[in-house]
Specification:
The chain is of the alpha+beta class and about 140 residues long. It has two helices and six strands. The longest helix is centred in the last third of the chain and has 17 residues.
């Protein structure tokens, strides 16, 4: 029996313009509400310790098992630094499985399906920019 490769954190580049922010957020929020009856994304001021200077970002998370998190940030920060070289991707979607040590195989499958549908719901072409290994530090963290 073949073992399935387990996916962990990923970052997708959304091929769009900076000005597409409202449409991307609207598309994701509609998906969250209509497909899963979840709340819309939260918009937070960025107070993280990061190599990048973001004014704010959007995120959503689920505290119940299986726990997951995702956020939406610009690829170019306020100081003109790019997180990824792909300049077509003005927005970055980061997806994360939290507490994976508690996940069952079904949890992995369910969350993978949720993230797959989330990426499709963006309404813009998305490309995988980075696939993290278990325990790998997020790009840009100090």
């Amino acid at each position: 029996m073949a073992t399935q490769t387990i996916e962990y954190d990923m970052e997708y580049g959304i091929k769009s313009k900076k000005e597409d922010e409202k449409q991307i957020v609207k598309n994701i929020n509609n998906f969250l509400k209509n497909e899963y009856n979840y709340r819309k994304m939260y918009k937070w001021k960025d107070t993280s310790i990061s190599k990048f200077n973001y004014g704010d970002y959007y995120c959503q998370f689920i505290k119940e098992k299986p726990r997951w998190y995702f956020d939406l940030t610009m690829n170019e920060d306020l100081d003109g630094k790019w997180k990824f070289d792909n300049r077509e991707a003005q927005w970055i979607l980061y997806t994360r499985k939290n507490y994976v040590e508690e996940y069952t195989q079904k949890d992995h499958e369910d969350v993978d399906l949720f993230f797959k549908k989330l990426v499709e719901a963006i309404g813009f072409e998305a490309v995988l920019l980075h696939k993290y290994k278990l325990g790998e530090e997020r790009i840009g963290n100090k």
